[in-house]
Amino acid sequence: MRAISRGLSRFCYNHPNLGIPDLIKYIALGNVFVYIADMLTNGWVSMFIRFYPELIFQGQVWRLVTFIFSPLSVGGGFWGPFFFAVTTYFYYWIGSSLERQWGSTRFTVFYGLGVLLNVVVGIVTYLLMPITSNLIGGYYLETATMYYVNLSMFFSFATLYPDMQVLLYGIIPLKVKWLAWLDAIFFTYDIFSYLTGSTPLRALLPVIAILNYLIFFWEDLMSVLGRGSERIRYRTSPQTINFKKAQKDVKERKGYLHKCAVCGLTDADDPNMEFRYCSKCNGYYCYCMKHINDHIHVQ
Predict the structure, then answer these.
(1) 263 touches 290 (CB < 8 A)
(2) 60, 149, 273, 284: least surrounded by Cβ within 10 Å?
(3) What is the separation of C-alpha 36 from the centre of its chain, rounded to a whole number of angstroms?
(4) Could you give the CA distance from residue 60 to residue 110 in angstroms, rounded to a whole number?
């Protein structure tokens, strides 16, 4: 995984002009166009562009690409257009933010790899599933969708900006990292549902979306895990334990741990005060923040 991640990073770095600037804008506009066209044609346009392998093998090869413009289901009725508008704008905003952070090439490769993996899984699912499973209620089964690619795109955004606050549906303020956990629950639930349902191979769709995310963030995730392991080793090392024990003994004996050499203020007098030790003084002299830069150095 690390080799693949580094290889893609080098490729994006060495080919800065291969990206499609504002790619997510064109995808969002395509979704809007198809959504409006569906309202006028009772869904015929989406039926014409969705990923139906049965029809692809009959010669309708445009579906290998056009399925990315098929709007995700957001329900009907009065609230349908509202939720579609909010969802589409949200993913456009996320995609634009990722492109600004990564550059056009890296974002294009990320999205393009997600599309390619979906196509492969969609074809494999069709070939391995029983023929009777490819029809549901007389309709062809859609074996590839951009739903999980969009969710993995949000995973990427949350990894880069975990503490950013967004308004869920324009109303509820939430940090991105909490929405990412909700995103993870959706992934887990869908994988479990597919594995225990009549179409277990469709569980590959969320799995390959997570794989796409891991490929691009493997180095970052390993770095975070490495820093976490270092913190655990530091906290549990005998040297740290002995140092903290010595500090505790000094505090119990004196009633304080730090005392300013100028004003005599201790951490017991003001628990919120920070104390520093001066490197220019000849000895081990402690000062509060008021006097660390305002004292005569002891020589």
Answers:
(1) yes
(2) 284
(3) 30
(4) 26
Bridge pairing between strands 275-277 and 286-288: antiparallel
CA 221 to chain centre: 11
User: Which three-class secondary structure string do you get for the chain?
Assistant: CHHHHHHHHHHHHHCCCCCCCCHHHHHHHHHHHHHHHHHHHCCHHHHHHCECHHHHCCCCCCHHHHHHHCCCCCCCCCCHHHHHHHHHHHHHHHHHHHHHHHCHHHHHHHHHHHHHHHHHHHHHHHHHCCHHHHEECCEECCCECCHHHHHHHHHHHHHHCCCCEEEECCCEEEEHHHHHHHHHHHHHHHHHHHHHCCCHHHHHHHHHHHHHHHHHHHHHHHHHHHHHHHHHHHHHCHHHHHHHHHHHHHHHHHCCCCECCCCCCECCCCCCCCEEECCCCCCCCEEECCCCCCCCCCC
pLDDT in tens, 173-210: 778 888 888 888 888 998 998 888 877 888 888 899 88
- State residue 121 phi and psi, 5-degree precision: -65, -40
**Which residue type, as a one-letter code, is found at position 51?**
F
Which single residue is written with the structure tokens 């109303």?
171
pLDDT tens sequence across 28-63: 999 999 999 988 988 889 889 999 988 898 899 999
DSSP string, 146-197: SHHHHHHHHHHHHHH-TT-EEEETTTEEEEHHHHHHHHHHHHHHHHHHHHHS
Residue at token pair 């349902």: 197
Look-up: residue for tokens 């579906």? 63
**In 3-state terms, what secondary structure has residue 288?**
strand
Contact between 22 and 232 under an 8 Å Cβ cutoff? The reply is no
CA dihedral of residues 267, 268, 271, 277 (deg, nearest 10):
0
